[in-house]
Amino acid sequence: MPRPVKNSNSGIESNPLTRLCEKLHQHVPGLHLWAASLYHSNRPPLLTEVILTQPLRTPPSVTRHVQQQQFMVRGETVYGYTTAPCPLPCDGPAPRVMRHTGQGHAEGEPGDCEQCGFLVGQILVELGVGGTGSTTSSPRPLQYRDVFILTWVNSLHDAKSDASGQVTRPASGVLRGVRGAGIPVTVLQPEDEDGVRDVATMAGPNHVIATDCGVVQGLERKVVVWVGGLDGYDAWGRLFAASRCTSQLVLVTPPPREQSDTSRDDDSDCN
Ligand SMILES: [Zn+2]
Questions:
Q1: Which of 60, 63, 112, 261 has its CA 20 to 30 A from that of 222?
Q2: 3-state class of 148 per DSSP?
Q3: Which residue ranges form the domains of the chain, and what is each CATH number?
Q4: Torsion angle, CA of 124/126/130/132, rounded to 10 degrees?
């Protein structure tokens, strides 16, 4: 355990992680404790800060998008990335950006829009997700389980039925649309611990997983679809979702600012 270092953040001395570190330090001789994916403003004073800001698996095309998010631009909450010491072999596919606006789109949030979902499904088909190519070919075909559809605060829901099997609440529009394009989707709820474990280990059905960013925080997928919202937390969700992507990022964004009541980021640099 490193020596205590000065940390001027107010309230940090009393937070649960700080108390845990202090008790462990008192009771476990020679302990070396590491904490990762921790906001630097939440670092217990007993821990020395080491900054690892080089993207390891995110391609530059996605890294640039993550860097645009306001929390990383300011560096107050999340440090920005550092430049790779040597050039990477490729830039990676450009993020695909879809606007939830125009003919055929539902009113309200993108997550409620079947048209957005169908267009996402078409992109997944175009990418070859769920293809039947040889599993021995290189690279192997994308499976459905290689895809996350992520939102913020779990705004997507599956259909609900009563005891007679009558649907009392249809699934979120974007899920209906994706399924309409022939893509199997499972909605992962935060309380489904077995489901979260299966997703972490790539077990369970070979389905696309739709869930909240926080439920699968720390996990990565080759294809990540971020379904934006109109609320003020959208930038947070985009930061968490985009940084989970190791290849193709797909963004479903709300209407342009003048059509929305709330402020949010501009996507013009992602097209
Ligand atoms: Zn739409």
A1: 112
A2: strand
A3: 1-50 (no CATH), 60-270 (3.40.50)
A4: 180
**Between residues 109 and 73, the one the model is more confident about:** 109
Q: How far, in Å, is the centroid of ligand 1 from the Cα of 154? A: 18
Per DSSP, 49 falls in state P
Q: What φ, ψ does residue 247 adopt, rounded to 5°?
A: -155, -85
- Say which range, 24-33, 43-52, 212-221, 256-265, has the weakest mean pLDDT: 256-265
Strand, coil or helix: 161 = strand
- Per-residue pLDDT at 251: 93
The CA 217 to ligand 1 mean position distance, Å, reads 26
- Say how many Å lie between the CA of residue 66 and the centre of ligand 1: 23
Determine phi and psi for 163, rounding to 5 degrees. -60, -25
- Residue 123 Cα to ligand 1 middle (Å): 14
Tokens for 19? 């108390």
What gap in Å lies between CA 12 and CA 22, rounded to an integer?
Answer: 12
Structure token digits, residue 166:
């009558």
**What distance in angstroms lies between residue 262's CA and the mean position of ligand 1's atoms?**
17
